[in-house]
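Reviewer comment 2.1 asked that we show a complete input and output for one of the modelled complexes. We chose the zinc ion case, as it is the one discussed in the main text.
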Amino acid sequence: MCLLSKGSRQYERRKWRTLTDAGKMMRPFDVLFDLAEGKVNLLGNRTVRRYSDVKHIFHEIDPKLERENPIIYEVFEAPIAEKEGDLMFLITLLYPGRVKNEFFMTKGHYHVFENTAEVYLGLKGKGLVLCQTRNGDFESHEICPNKVVYIPPYWAHRAVNTSSELLVFFGVYPAHAGHDYKSVEAEGFKKRVFFENDKICIR
Ligand code: S6P
Ligand code: ZN
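Response of the prediction step:
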């Protein structure tokens, strides 16, 4: 009998261990998130990216953000091991704001195993998913509630919040895919998203 109260730290730690113990067959599980209440913890790792962590991806330096160092985005993962056969799922919260006139965005990455796809489902807010291949093909797709963006194998992907509210999206991909940030840092994305003359401008 489990005497730990549901939701307590101990309960969550126990649940996490149960899900990821090497050599054990995983058991089905469910996890509830509540966007209205701001509860999106999926029981796995949480990554927080502040301005100082990602400022190099933007076109310009913003002295105000240098001082305030706000959170640009957070990612809440499910407690899934990074191995073939599993699916990782996560929720990204991308805050509204701009670095000078460039909208807040994620670092962006290829998957290390490049033949792995990903699905994004918009939950709240509005933005763009920028997609790019190594041979320079580029597309942007809107993400918003009830919209699914399918990112095929071999496409790097980056999310941009083009609205004045929080952008929240769910993502799922093969758990062994891995993240290659270096290539995107070296090559950049072909296009950036700015707010210019009261309009969203992709250029
Ligand atoms: C993971 C998936 C997303 C991103 C997240 C943050 O494959 O594409 O969950 O990890 O949106 O972006 P990034 O580029 O910093 O990992
Ligand atoms: Zn990805």
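Residues 9-20 form the longest helix (12 residues). We note this here for comparison with the apo prediction described in Section 3.2.
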